Amino acid sequence: LYMFGIPAKNAKEFDAANWMDQLSLVYSDFLGIEKSSFSAADIELPFLENKDEEFSIKAEEEKLMEPIQSFNTSGRKLFTASALTNYLYCQRQYFYSEFMGLPALDEQVINETKDMSATTMGSIIHETLEKYNGRNNLIHAFKAAVKAWAPCANTDRAWKLLKDYVNSELFKSIPSEQLREKEFLVEAEDLVFKGFIDVLAFNPDGTLSIIDYKTGEPPKAGDEELGYMYQLAIYSYAAEKLLNKKVTKAELHFLQNNTSFALTKENAFEEALSLAKEITAKTQEEEFACNHESCKHCGYNYLCRKE
Fold first, then answer.
1. For residues 199 and 174, is the Cβ–Cβ distance under 8 A?
2. What is the pLDDT of residues 101-130, one digit of tens each?
3. Beta-strand relationship, 208-214 and 247-254
4. What is the pTM of this model?
5. CA 184/CA 194 separation, integer angstroms
6. H or E segment at 185?
7. Which of 85, 119, 78 is nearest to 99 (CA)?
8. Is 225:189 a contact under the CB 8 Å cutoff?
């Protein structure tokens, strides 16, 4: 089931009432309905079960990583690493997504029975690795993820990436004591950062390692990739502040070729914080520049004025 390009299984990631309000403002004339007819109570959204994971062996640390549930997300005071990356890519796209909360049209909605989209493949791989702990059967975890995300899609590519990664030295080098898919919400000055850490590993010397999986193309040699640096810096800041342990390694694992990308920029978190403050100071659509080179594949082509 899709709702304007968004899989219904992802509905827990946004506030239904706010989303429908924003959508009604844009499409009220087109749909022929009044804004007042929208109600969160009218929408039945399927939610995935949140079961206890057997790999969560660090109970005290896991409790510290629990997010502050009462904080109100807005796109002005709360930021994710992926949102900052989107801002670097196209500021206007950030405005529609984070400020307005409008849905992006998915290029792959109609083609779900053929080759899966990059987003769907990433979701399947992340869910499989979240469940797999070396003792579980990899194919069993993979089939369960495929059933949840894209039961009719061609899975050959995703399966090859997973199998090669799990058998790689890169995967085997991760310490065995871990927390996986841990959500955090952490304050920095008057702003808040939110995210999910794929793997938070506890090193034998008491320090931490942070691993995040990437299914997209790895950066080319010499690329600074600020978005990646900011992501790792934010994750490291959150882990150190919440767990009071030093992060000695933070890196991305690219499954396309089983290479890693490490945090090397010393002031990356300060730069990310400065970028968030820059966004906070903006209020109007025209203040968010449009990156015309990205328009062809942008999910907001249906409403962007491209000015």
1. yes
2. 888 886 544 344 456 788 899 999 999 999
3. parallel
4. 0.73
5. 6
6. strand 178-188
7. 78
8. no
